[in-house]
Amino acid sequence: MSTFQSQIANLKSQIPMPNIDFFNFFRWLLFIIASIYATVVTLQSLWGWYIWFQGPDKFITLLRRYVLVHGLRLRFKTFWGDVIICVLLCVAFLIMWRLHRLIFDRMI
Prior knowledge:
Low-confidence stretches: none
Mean pLDDT: 84
Number of strands: 0
Shape: elongated
Structural class: mainly alpha
Radius of gyration: 28 Å
């Protein structure tokens, strides 16, 4: 029995365990899957709208012109509040990303 235990102890000392943080592995795997999924769904939706707007029907042609004219007449000054909110959210994200990197590198 002791020779068996010594063989197991010898085997454990020969095979080094990889240093894997499963939380970070799961987080990155989830990030990759979610990014690919969001990209595919967005591209499918845009392609569907493109195909739909290419229809030869009279009302679709009218709607296509309507969307084009309103896109050209878009007033950006009415959206500055939303732009400021988006910029502030991006700044908050960058601060949290930086703090996460500092914590991960054990600097804090």
